[in-house]
Design brief:
Blueprint lengths: L6 E7 L2 E9 L12 E2 L4 E2 L5 E2 L3 E2 L7 E6 L2 E5 L1 H7 L6 E9 L8 E9 L5 H14 L1 E9 L2 E10 L2 E7 L9 H4 L9 H13 L12 H15 L22 H10 L9 H15 L4 H6 L3 H19 L1
Parallel strand pairs: 1-9
Antiparallel strand pairs: 1-2, 2-10, 3-4, 5-6, 7-8, 9-11, 10-13, 11-12, 12-13
InterPro entries: DNA_bd_Ku70/Ku80 (IPR006164), Prok_Ku (IPR009187), SPOC-like_C_dom_sf (IPR016194)
Pfam family, one: Ku
Family: Belongs to the prokaryotic Ku family.
Length: about 325
């Protein structure tokens, strides 16, 4: 468990108070940050705070400002800003409960683990956890941390509870402006069946460890090579995915090939590729089978039976 809690206080539900501690559930990934370097000297570049037409300024002369119109700012002193900060209360009051499906995914921001602060809090904590699980509800409240009030949700997670900070309504862009131009029509049943079959074939339990940031891995490899090469320039050859055919595709044919090949390229599974071809040939060539039957085929049939025994004897040998 992390040495320092993000928040310590109590969850309050009516007259029940539960002492808890909250810890970050995530950590910064393997992101690689770069510094700007002065190449001739190899030293990092620093930045000076300057005013246009004046030049560098002293730190004591800098105040915060909010731009109310272009080029016009309201200046605010630090003590003025501190005066309106919300006091970091030590109580998270649960004010509402909603069904799990009612909150859209883009409202969720960051998860935290919630644990009982001590042994005395265990019983009440477990009751809250199991009540949320039984009712399939999410608890909502507002948490005051570092002068900011955050909307949060609580839901059961294993033996504990997960708190997630939520975005406020004015922080979320409306989807309509992005989705309005998408046609509101249903696909054909054949296409839908093929797509759902493909999804079923590629369905599997989620294993986060199976996924990696390939760009970060490649950057780490490049840095290691560059270090061993003592600064020598290294250019990696990256294979770009090649375009297969025209941009205008036959969706039905593409889905059939994908389903037949287990979700991959059609050429990866020749056996699966042959099956649809035989069915198509059977439909198209059905009228042409009658002339083929009328043609004299007895002599070739006799040859095949005569040639069959040697072939068997070779297999046995």
């Amino acid at each position: 468990m992390a040495a320092r809690a993000y928040w310590q206080g109590q969850i309050r539900l009516a007259l029940v108070s539960i002492p808890v501690e909250i810890y970050p559930a995530t950590k910064s990934g393997a992101a690689i940050s770069f510094r700007q370097i002065h190449e001739p000297s190899g030293k990092p570049i620093n930045y000076e705070k300057v005013v246009q037409g004046i030049g560098p300024v002293d730190h004591d002369d800098i105040v915060k400002g909010y731009e109310v119109s272009k080029g016009n700012f309201v200046l605010l002193e630090d003590d003025e800003i501190e005066a309106v900060k919300i006091e970091s209360r030590k109580t998270l009051e649960l004010v509402q409960f909603v069904d799990q499906h009612e909150i859209d995914v883009f409202y969720f921001e960051k998860p935290y683990y919630v644990v009982p602060a001590d042994d005395l809090a265990d019983e009440a904590f477990v009751v809250l956890r199991e009540a949320l699980r039984k009712t399939r509800k999410i608890a909502l409240g507002q948490l005051s941390v570092r002068g900011r009030e955050q909307l949060v949700s609580l839901r059961p997670c294993g033996k504990g509870i997960v708190l997630e900070t939520l975005r406020y309504a004015d922080e979320v862009k409306k989807a309509q402006s992005y989705f309005d131009e998408i046609p509101d029509e249903k696909p054909s049943e054949d296409l839908l069946d093929l797509a759902t079959t493909l999804i079923d074939k590629k369905s599997a339990p989620f294993e986060p460890a199976e996924f990696h940031d390939r760009y970060i891995d490649a950057l780490k490899g490049l840095i290691e090579k560059k270090t061993r090469a003592k600064g020598k320039k290294i250019l990696e050859d990256v294979e770009e995915p090649t375009s297969r055919g025209s941009n205008v595709i036959d969706l039905m044919a593409a889905l059939k090939r994908s389903v037949g090949s287990g979700g991959g390229a059609a050429s990866e599974n020749p056996a699966a590729k042959k099956a649809p071809a035989k069915k198509a040939a059977a439909k198209k060539d059905a009228p042409a089978k009658e002339p083929a039957k009328k043609a004299p085929a007895k002599k070739p049939a006799a040859k095949k039976t005569a040639e069959a025994p040697p072939a068997r004897s070779r297999k046995r040998a």
